[in-house]
């Protein structure tokens, strides 16, 4: 099928209008229009024409109706092989009044109507033998065809793509018989096993597994009992042997002798330790007396040292105090001298400042005279732009035409000229050649040799012959404007504006525009010279004359007579004043430093006097007592007498410590002997208790015959495990059979998907070198794509990559249909909106390559980008096609 033209009437924004999109060539056709021009409206209308019954009232049909209401009419001209057809539908949003027709363009005959027309569309265009058109159309903003995102009819169309392929796959792999076998296998497997291959609750396999587990637990319990009996017998043998060793009489006698010997050694060690402590106590008393004597001697020496240090400090402080007093007197004299210099400089500055003030007043008077002369010159320069401003304002008061009026007149003239040319094309004409009296029409003479249009009813009088009536063909004037009416509208517009011709209106507009520019230029010059206006300059001039008490001429004369050296005298005075200010600033800046030095010297003097007083008071407090020398001599004699007694006491303590036995070792040996005997007695008691318990346990286990029970349970467990293994092997065999059957079917599907791969893979590798893909057997679409060794799901790709793959898939299916003899048009409505510049160029190349044997129609609002696509250009036109016939 090849689409040639699409005609709409009363659809959405084209309310009560007829619009045509086309014509479409055999290869690539592009329609590039701005947004809101109706491109998507044509797409939706074509979709409704092919996929919706004429009596449908679905939302998609209601959305095509304009706000003003009315029936929606859609027609398309197509070619199927060598035959051309026109498909027409009228949607009245209800069954009554709606219709559908199939018309042969070669003969104009109506081939099918109503439901027969719908059946013709289904059998001829939508059947699987011709290819599902909807799969290859990309609606604006939607490139995917996933079942979760597509409309119901889109899903059905997609499923029809490979209906014949799926039928052949079923034929090879068994079809429904294969499904029955797989279902029986899955049912039998489901009866005994879960999806994870585990025994299913309630099944025989689960019962066998549970019995084996129960017997395994019984076996483990009985085995534990048998192991416990063997362990108890062994423990009884060990306990009996150990009790004999502990109750040996020789061992008991050795334990008693060891306790007595360790007790005697401990008593002797304790007596020697008591004598050492008594000797150490006597030594401590002598050492305490020695410390008291040494402390008294040290205190007397310390007091003497402190008194000598205070005398030295007092001498140093007296010398420092004298230096501080001298420095304070020097700083005080420098401050007095600085203050006197500052006073002299301030008096000199005051005198110079008064003289400078008088000089500045004279300079201001000179500046005012200069300003007065400049104002006279400025007022004189304003005369010329003021004259030009008055002339421009006079011109602007004259009548003129606005740009909107001129544009309207130009539009009317253009429409008038087009109407005249259209009427020449659509209406017949005639020529008159009279040999006598000329022919007349409504009393107006018709000139000879001049073509006359038959664009209205004409009653012509022919002298010597009679009359003739001429009428235009019915409907010939439809949608063509009347040029006379347009000329009348032009004349009325010119009359309202006050002009005779359009040329005069344009000339008046140009003069008005130049006057406006001249006015703006004059105003700009006036504003630049007098921002506040000419009157403000005059007021300033009068004020200066009043202040100076002279005219402009007198001011000029006084300015010439001024002393030329006055500015230099003023500058010299300003420099002298600045020098005095800098000198005063330097003098005042150095004064705080002198004040700080004076304050520092006064503070240091006060601090030195206070410290000197403190030292003298401390020396008075440390005056020596009268008996200090006697106390020192007495303490030295007592220390000498105590020295031999300390030496004797230390020697005695050292001798006792060297002869002392090890008290801790003796005590540890005695405790060890006691503990060894005690532990033997405790162990004997524990071993006798444990032996009694073991005798009871052995007696109980011997009566239960646990060894015979263990052998019986082990045999039952072996049989239960064999039965469970049989069920596991059966489940594994069924699962393996299902896997092989499904693998065989998948292999057959892959074989029949190969034609699609052969068409799509070269296209995909033009976009991504070395890429590969996998097809989802259920959706019959690309599921994963591999690029540079990395495999991604299609639905996680970027918007640009996703739309490119979706469009390439459609191109591949189109090539497959074409090889089968079914040409299906590809329609893309703003499909490449997310593609970058480099890949869009590659996509353009592939579209151009495919268009050699395939009809491709591209609608886009991206005029600049898609101008590089090439192919034929189609346009949206209004009023160029008869509206679909009323059915």
From TrEMBL:
Q: What is this protein called?
A: DNA repair exonuclease SbcCD ATPase subunit
* Organism the protein comes from: Cohaesibacter marisflavi
UniProt xrefs under Pfam families: AAA_23
Single Gene Ontology BP term? double-strand break repair
Is this entry keyworded Ribosomal protein? no
In terms of Gene3D superfamilies, this protein maps to:
P-loop containing nucleotide triphosphate hydrolases
Q: Rad50/SbcC-type AAA domain: which residues?
A: 5-308
Coiled-coil annotation reads 205-232, 269-348
**Which of UniProt's keywords are assigned here?**
Coiled coil, Exonuclease, Hydrolase, Nuclease
**Alphabetized InterPro entries for the sequence:** P-loop_NTPase, Rad50/SbcC_AAA
Report a single Gene Ontology molecular function.
Answer: ATP hydrolysis activity
Q: Record keywords: Plastid included?
A: no
**Origin organism lineage:** Bacteria, Pseudomonadati, Pseudomonadota, Alphaproteobacteria, Hyphomicrobiales
